[in-house]
UniProtKB/TrEMBL annotation:
The keyword Membrane applies. Belongs to the peptidase M8 family. The keyword Electron transport does not apply. The chain crosses the membrane at residues 675-697. It comes from Erinaceus europaeus. Its cofactor is Zn(2+). Pfam families: Peptidase_M8. This is Leishmanolysin-like peptidase. It is an enzyme of class 3 (hydrolase). Its EC number is 3.4.24.-. Binds 1 zinc ion per subunit. Residues 1-19 form the signal peptide. Residues 36-53 have a biased composition (Polar residues). Residues 34-53, 708-729 are annotated as: Disordered.
């Protein structure tokens, strides 16, 4: 369950203040079905052909939508319903795709078939132990309506058959075995509805539950219900819905108090069946009665995050009743598995959550896919306690109710609290227009902008009290508007930033020029009075974010592909840019791409820009670079650029990527004979260039890219049509 944070509640939802967890409640009501013993893999043929282990493969989540009559018109028109479903399905696909780069399992052999519950379809069993059909169904339940999963009726095609057994002899099939679902390790049923749960708690965006397990107790199927009214509203962006889906999917895949007790201890890894046992202890209460998740990877990961040696003893869970399926928000603010949703931009698929999936024993986890969690990093074991958060010992927390910056510096914030913080206060994004990275939050052109703010994808929040200083003799401004020399308080302001090297950056205030901003220092800006504080340890953190791109490796990576992304930029009319300007623009475009991809800079190398504003960059994932496979990022960026062009602000002008001129140049050729050639072979692409009514054709040589090893990235299969074109799956 994800709840909107209270500040959004105020906007969106009337009277919904409670933050009770629906996942807990829905999962509790679920009967978790496992295959009957006779279908355990120890008896199955596939097990015999793979006696001991199966190499983990990326988790294949198949999503299904089954016609769900849109209920009662309580929300919006039919058009809204269809739009909501489209949004939900797109988000579910994207979340599933993203998890392929994170979780791997020994793949399900053959089609995935779900189980039927004998207690549902069968009224009586043969009770004589000497009967050949002992314990088989002797009498059907006439009221049996099939299997369902959180309100979704599972189609017979996804289910095993069932039979009625005479006292002796062969069974009489009532329902044949379904065809099952090919290429699936998990089935996700998707439903968009205005359910009573949505109705009762207006802040609930979605909820999910797991309904079936495999013979190792790994979740096999679940349902996500999206509350229709949230999908019909434009408050939530596509990225928000993807993030909400990811949260719910992670519940259904194992991050749930009802599944914690089924987690397995697999010392030899999840691929080696038979060497695992159910974990003895997953949760325990601490001395104050707070529940902790105590498994080894999770504890180790938290200790590393807090910068303490020797390991922590467990990760606190949110207090939400006798059980809990979320991290404690005071400690892990910004993690995808806290109970309240605070927008996709402020949510991370963090290392501690991924550690939990490792501890489940069901998954092989790609820890490089983890996103850095800034909150509390290196703050020690006392961090995030109700007893320490108000003492001023950590600048992640605040006191009072002043204005400042949210800890990620993407937003302005007000010092406030919400129920999960249990009295602790932090700078929370304002209800309206606090995002520095949203251009539309800026003042309309021509409006007075004394603090010189710039709202832009590359803008960040800085504590400042800058005011335009009027130069002597500037008579265009009436004296009444000349700022008084009163010490204005520092507040959150939005200014453009640019990383220069690891941890270092410069800032741009409107009408001034780029000024270096040494972390921890207060700086002055030419033409402005007042100060700007440069935050320490919050911006341009990863070395990947800096300009210092490592030189390409001598030996090319075998585990990832080298891809190329190329597109045309449209800029203001005028003479073509000089070399220096193009370099600046190249850098700005690269930063915008990194920010759009939500990943590290380490994926990108050799960015360049032609005089005709064709931007090209190579992509691959070097070892140690956190995030999804380069192919996944490449595809996501392509789709994203098609949906929404990149907008870059450079030297006072705005440049936009043109999606019709997005050049797809990655190519996958599995033939080994081409491997040696693949890097040197150039293809010629024709780009249609339309300029001021005249058409020009430009020939461009682009690097032809192929897989660098015979075993190509599995996850790229199926995302690509026969012609090497990307398409959405
Ligand atoms: C947010 O602020 C803008 C500009 O001040 C205003 O037009 C808009 O109505 C506000 N929205 C809400 C929901 O308050
Ligand atoms: C800005 O803030 C600093 C530090 O609080 C203060 O000394 C200074 O007077 C303020 N300047 C302006 C112009 O408000």
């Amino acid at each position: 369950l994800l709840l909107l944070m209270p500040m959004l509640l105020l906007l969106l939802l009337l009277g919904a203040a409670s933050s009770r967890c629906l996942h807990e409640e829905t999962q509790k009501a679920m009967h978790l079905l496992s295959p009957p013993l006779s279908q355990h893999p120890s008896n199955a043929r596939s097990y015999l052909t793979h006696p001991d282990s199966q190499a983990p493969q990326p988790l294949r989540i198949q999503t299904y939508h089954l016609g769900d009559p849109v209920s009662d018109g309580a929300w919006g028109s039919e058009g809204d319903g269809a739009r909501g479903l489209t949004r939900a399905l797109a988000a579910a696909e994207e979340a599933a795709q993203r998890l392929r780069g994170v979780l791997a399992v020994p793949p399900v052999q053959g089609p995935l078939l779900l189980s039927r519950d004998p207690e549902e379809y069968c009224h009586a069993l043969w009770g004589d132990p000497n009967s050949p059909n002992y314990h088989r169904c002797s009498l059907l339940n006439p009221g049996y309506r099939g299997e369902s999963c959180l309100g979704i009726k599972i189609p017979d095609a996804h289910l095993r058959g069932y039979a009625l057994w005479p006292e002796q002899g062969p069974p009489q099939m009532v329902q044949q075995e379904g065809a099952g679902v090919q290429n699936a390790d998990f089935l996700l049923y998707v439903r968009v509805a205005h359910t009573s749960k949505c109705h009762q708690e207006a802040s609930v965006i979605a909820y999910a539950a797991c309904c079936q397990l495999d013979s190792d107790d790994r979740p096999l199927a679940g349902t996500i219900v999206y509350c229709a009214r949230h999908l019909a509203s434009s408050r939530l962006s596509h990225d928000d819905i993807v993030m909400v889906t990811l949260h719910e999917l992670l519940h259904a895949l194992g991050f749930s108090s009802h599944l914690f007790k089924k987690w397995r201890d697999c010392p030899s890894g999840p691929a080696v069946r038979g060497h695992c046992s159910t974990r003895r202890q997953v949760m325990r209460p601490d001395e104050r009665g707070h529940l902790l998740l105590t498994t080894p990877a999770v504890s180790h990961s938290l200790a590393k995050h807090l910068g303490v040696l020797g390991g922590s003893v467990g990760v606190p869970l949110e207090e939400e009743g006798p059980l809990s399926s979320h991290w404690e928000a005071r400690l892990l603010q910004g993690s995808i598995m806290t109970a309240a949703f605070n927008g996709a931009q402020r949510t991370r698929l963090d290392p501690i959550t991924l550690a939990a999936f490792e501890d489940s024993g069901w998954y092989h986890v790609n820890h490089r896919a983890a996103e850095e969690l800034l909150w509390g990093q290196g703050s020690g074991l006392q961090f995030g306690l109700v007893t320490t958060c108000g003492t001023g010992s950590s600048d992640f927390f605040c006191t009072g109710s002043g204005l400042g910056c949210h800890f990620l510096h993407l937003d302005k914030g007000r010092c406030s609290t919400h129920p999960e913080l249990e009295g602790c206060r932090m700078y929370m994004p304002l209800a309206n227009g606090s995002e520095c990275w949203k251009q539309e939050n800026g003042l309309p052109a021509g409006a007075e902008n004394l603090p010189g703010e710039i709202y832009h994808p590359q803008s960040r929040c800085f504590l400042a009290n800058l005011t335009s200083q009027l130069l002597p003799g500037d008579e265009a401004v009436p004296p009444s508007q000349i700022p008084h020399e009163v010490g204005e308080e520092l507040t959150g302001r939005c200014y453009l930033h640019q990383c220069t090297e690891r941890g270092m950056y410069k800032v741009l205030v409107a009408g001034s020029h780029w000024t270096p901003c040494p972390p921890g220092k207060a700086i002055q800006i030419p033409r402005y009075s007042g100060l700007l504080l440069c935050p320490r340890g919050r911006l341009c953190r990863a070395k990947e974010d800096s300009n210092t791109i490592p030189s390409p490796p001598a030996s090319l990576p075998t585990q990832d592909l080298l891809l190329q992304l190329s597109f045309q930029l449209a800029g203001p009319p005028g003479p073509s840019l000089g070399k220096v300007e193009r370099e600046e623009l190249t850098e700005a475009v690269l930063q915008a791409l990194v920010s759009r991809g939500g990943t590290s800079r380490c994926y990108f190398r050799s960015p360049r820009m032609t005089t005709s504003l064709v931007f090209t960059v190579h992509m691959w994932r070097p070892p140690g670079c956190p995030g999804p496979a380069a192919g996944v990022l490449h595809r996501d960026l392509m789709l994203s650029l098609q949906r929404r062009p990149l907008e870059v602000y450079c030297r006072g002008a705005s440049f936009t990527s043109e999606d019709s001129k997005l050049l797809v140049t990655s190519d996958q050729n599995h033939s080994a004979t081409h491997l040696h050639l693949s890097l040197g072979l150039c293809l010629t692409l024709l780009i249609l260039m339309g300029a001021l009514g005249s058409m020009a054709y430009q020939k461009r040589a682009t690097l032809r890219v192929g897989p660098l090893a015979p075993h190509h990235s599995q996850e790229l299969q199926g995302t690509r049509g026969p012609a090497g074109e990307m398409r959405e799956v």
